[in-house]
Amino acid sequence: MTFDSDFHLHTNASDGRCTVSELICAAKERGLKRVAVTDHSFSGLRRRSTPEKFEAQRAEIYAQEGITALQGIEANIISEDGEIDVPDEVMRRADVLIAGFHRFAALMRKSEARRFVFVNGFLSERERQKLYDVNTCAYLGLIECYPVDIIAHIGHRCPADFVRIAEACAARGVYIELNERHILDTRGLDERMGDIISTGVKFIVGSDAHRADRVGIFDNVAAFIKRHDIPLDRVYGIDGNVPAFKDRSEWKR
Ligand SMILES: [Zn+2]
Ligand SMILES: [Zn+2]
What we know:
By secondary structure, the protein is α/β, with parallel strands linked by helices. The protein has a domain at 74-236: TIM Barrel, CATH 3.20.20.140. The protein has 9 helices and 8 strands. The longest helix is centred in the middle third of the chain and has 14 residues, at 132-145. The N and C termini lie far apart (39 Å). The model has no long low-confidence stretch (mean pLDDT 93).
């Protein structure tokens, strides 16, 4: 299998180390054909992007030559309803919308948001496991309510029914990410992969690189694909499989 794309990259607009041009230069050196720059959305406690930075990086992304460069954003799931923290106008302008659970996403508007983020992010695996049904509902709510393209690093710090989530993704054209950075640090995902694949869901590759030297590196993802015998025609970002992302330009809440 040949990795020709990378749909999950962070620049110094959020917590990455490099500029857009440095990351994309590295992508071209690796022979990639398509990339998406996907900085963190705006509510986290740690270094995050802002609406101003999002707008400012747009021209630099679209000016890249010799590669298809998209502007995305990585949203934080911040409540048990599956609410995410991307303003509507940013959602409408993003070419790619990724959503994932992050423990530093602490927008404290609601008590349930506090519980959701902190219990999943900071307590023991056993405590987190008690939230299995709550987390599943959060993912299902997200997939139902938002025009999301990609569910990021599923199985990382947020226990849930991955098979039900995969069914919802398959029904609504949402890709499940194979995330190089976190795929070795998941719980309960390997055991469910057979059933997840049986849902017919599509997968997509993302390095989650925060540095230029990690762009387009997919050693863990390649091993995961082989181990679970994922059909290669259902993995997007390899072997010329080009994903289709949603048109959000008219989207309203
Ligand atoms: Zn993430
Ligand atoms: Zn990320």
